[in-house]
Amino acid sequence: MRTTPTHSLCKTAPHGVKHKIKMKQLKLEVGKTYRSREGKEVKITSCDGGYSHPYRGSDGDWYAESGKWSSYGKEHPHDLIEEVTVSDANQKHNEMEVLILQVGKTYVNRRGEEVRIVENDGGFGYSYRGNNGELYTESGKWWSKESPNDLIEEVPSESTRHTFTIPEGTKGVNVSKVGNRIVVEMVPEKDPNPGDVCINDLGSVYIFQSVAGKTTHRHYAWLGREGRVVLNESAIAGRPATPEEAQPLWDALKKAGKRWNAEAMQVEDVPESDRIREWLRANFDYHLYAQGDVVGAISRYLKHREGEK
Predict the structure, then answer these.
(1) Where does the pLDDT of residue 199 fall: very low under 50, low under 70, confident under 90, or very high at 90 and above?
(2) Is-contact 77 37, C-beta < 8 A?
(3) Residue 104 and residue 47: Cα distance in Å, rounded?
(4) CB of 128 within 8 A of CB of 119?
(5) How far apart are the first and last CA of the chain?
(6) Which H or E run includes 273?
């Protein structure tokens, strides 16, 4: 009976005559990298000394000493067929690129999504579970073929990695190291205009009036983090505030019986009649009113005002 070699390559001779070349028998070694029939590179990471397929690859699969992936003796795309030979420098670089997942660390997949490894059940193959419920090999593979779900690089530790939103109107960002702290300074596109609402690094929100110094602004109204409102003084300079960041200042002014008049560029008291009218609109059905009802409604409003103090 004629037998066909397990590993063979088919090459075309110069005159178009096809012939088969028997390949050298592989003997896998831990630490070396090999190429499969489908062109994938696999580094051998361990050998448990067991029978049949004792060599574990960086892809999480197991191989015979000859590089065979299948247990049935048939050629398979996953079979390792040749050693990848590179210079020492390139070998070191290649080793750095091979992930070894660790529980508690966060990695990014080919789509740019972050996945935190929460569990390793200690089993074979796909033993690492992510916080997205998916399972991965030790090298971050999600499937045997390249997939968008593959984990490809580690994300820096959350203890040293911080993200923030750069507000609109920012010309640049200055980053400096002061002692053991990293200081990030937002550089506005230009000085704010009088009447613009700003917020500084202390979380204080204020209505800008003018530049008082290199690091200070004069303001029409200022709200501290503790809820105190101050008028017409100076504060540490800040950046333009978003509408969400400005809202607490408007709420504080309203509670204090004051409002911002953008035309007159000043903070003014809200007339009691306006406050009564606003309260009545929210609490009184003016379609069904009588004189006694209005008197009663105003009395309830005055009690409401006393309760706010």
Answers:
(1) very high
(2) yes
(3) 26
(4) yes
(5) 104
(6) helix 272-283
CA distances from 283 to 173, 181, 248, 307 (A): 48, 52, 24, 16
Give the C-alpha separation, 96 to 92, whole Å.
6
pLDDT given at position 168? 61
Per DSSP, helices labelled H in 128-270 are: 243-255
Average pLDDT, stretch 167-191? 68
What one-letter code names the amino acid at 39?
A: G
Q: Which pLDDT score, from 0 to 100, does residue 263 have?
A: 93
Statement: residue 197 has pLDDT above 90 = yes
| Residue among 192, 222, 212, 104 nearest 154 (CA) | 104
- Please name the helix (run of DSSP H) or strand (run of DSSP E) that holds residue 295, with its range, or none: helix 291-308
pLDDT of res. 248: 95
CB neighbours of 202 closer than 8 A, spacing ≥ 6?
224, 225, 236
Strand ranges inside 24-169, DSSP E:
33-36, 41-47, 55-57, 62-63, 80-83, 106-109, 114-120, 128-130, 135-136, 151-154
Give the per-residue pLDDT at 161.
61
35 bridge partner residues: 41, 82
CA–CA dist 256, 268 (Å, integer): 11
- As a whole number of angstroms, the distance between CA 116 and CA 53 comes to 30
Q: Where are the domains of the chain?
A: 22-85, 99-154, 170-269, 272-308
Confidence of residue 50 (pLDDT cuts 50, 70, 90): confident
Question: Which whole number is the average pLDDT over 240-250?
Answer: 93
Count H helices and E strands in the chain, helices first.
Answer: 4, 22
Phi, psi torsion values for 306, nearest 5 degrees: -65, -35
Structure token pair of residue 21: 């070349």
pLDDT band at 3 (very low <50, low <70, confident <90, very high): very low
Backbone angles phi, psi at 233, to 5 degrees: -135, -155
